[in-house]
TrEMBL record:
SUPFAM superfamilies xref list: Calcium-dependent phosphotriesterase
Name of this chain's protein: Two component regulator propeller
Domain of life: Bacteria
Biological source species: Treponema vincentii ATCC 35580
InterPro entries: Reg_prop, WD40/YVTN_repeat-like_dom_sf
Length: 280
């Protein structure tokens, strides 16, 4: 029998999921003295076991003993571009990328140096370093690609580009499968990058009539012989990449902010919504 298990009752704007098999080991920080912000949208870790929490009020670093916060300071170029952070991505060599409401920041956690990029591109919604070491950055105004290490030049992808085209300017998530194909989840379905043409085209894995074909898609991730996608207002969709069929799973709350299947066991997928976490 296929069913979903609800195991957390209240979560807000989840951009990442953290799971622990022994809940007695968890500590909850809600007081400002212990945890300076309470709207966390992303969590990551560096090679020194320091945790980084992205929030709508700044970045928090926790070294196991104390918290250190990073906020935007007006007229100070050494601070982050905006305290409102939408997404974070830990790159190689403990370089942390911050997707803020006012552009992209590169935070070298070893030196403490912060560099600014795409300051005129508004809210950064997604960041991905692919297997070819290219950096992809999604925004609400299109997609950007940095093909070299310096990131001094970004190639824009949007609906008005004739060559570097993508069919929707609103990017919700970026992913890469085991075949090295890059996918963008957008307000108009899932798009995949064509390495030969240098443009995006509609995802060939999405069957006709599938809600993910034209719907508002927030995630597209690979699993064993299938792909999972979340469609706003619909729920989860499982696409069988072998047969070309799909199944739709409705949830009590279909506003899915996070989708996670990187368990030690391949038997589960977890969907984090604004009100609960569902495990299938």
């Amino acid at each position: 029998m296929k069913y979903f298990i609800t195991f957390v009752s209240t979560l807000f704007l989840m951009a990442g999921l953290v799971f622990c098999t022994d809940l007695s080991m968890l500590s909850f920080y809600t007081e400002p003295a212990l945890f300076p912000f309470n709207t966390v949208v992303g969590v990551t870790e560096d090679s020194h076991d320091c945790l980084y929490f992205a929030s709508q009020s700044g970045l928090i670093k926790y070294n196991g003993v104390s918290f250190e916060k990073y906020e935007h300071i007006p007229f100070d170029d050494t601070s982050i571009q905006s305290s409102q952070i939408q997404t974070i991505y830990m790159d190689a060599n403990d370089v942390l990328w911050l997707g803020t409401y006012n552009g992209l920041d590169r935070f070298d956690t070893q030196t403490g140096t912060i560099s600014h990029y795409l300051a005129d591109c508004g809210i950064i919604t997604a960041i991905l370093r692919d297997s070819r070491r290219r950096l992809w950055v999604g925004t609400l105004n299109g997609l950007y690609l940095c093909a070299n290490g310096s990131c001094m030049y970004f190639i824009p992808f949007n609906t008005s580009q004739s060559i570097s085209f993508i069919g929707s300017d609103t990017i919700h998530a970026l992913s890469e499968d085991t075949h090295g194909i890059i996918y963008a989840s957008t307000n108009d379905g899932v798009w995949q990058y064509n390495e030969n043409t240098g443009a995006f085209e509609r995802c060939s894995l999405i069957p006709k009539g599938c809600p993910a074909e034209r719907g508002v898609v927030y995630h597209f991730i690979e699993d064993t012989d299938c792909y999972w996608t979340s469609v706003w207002g619909t729920g989860l969709v499982r696409i069988d990449s072998v047969s070309g069929t799909y199944e739709t799973y409705s949830l009590p709350d279909s506003r899915i902010y996070s989708l996670y299947n990187n368990f030690t066991s391949a038997e589960y997928i977890a969907a984090g919504t604004k009100t609960a976490v569902y495990m299938y």
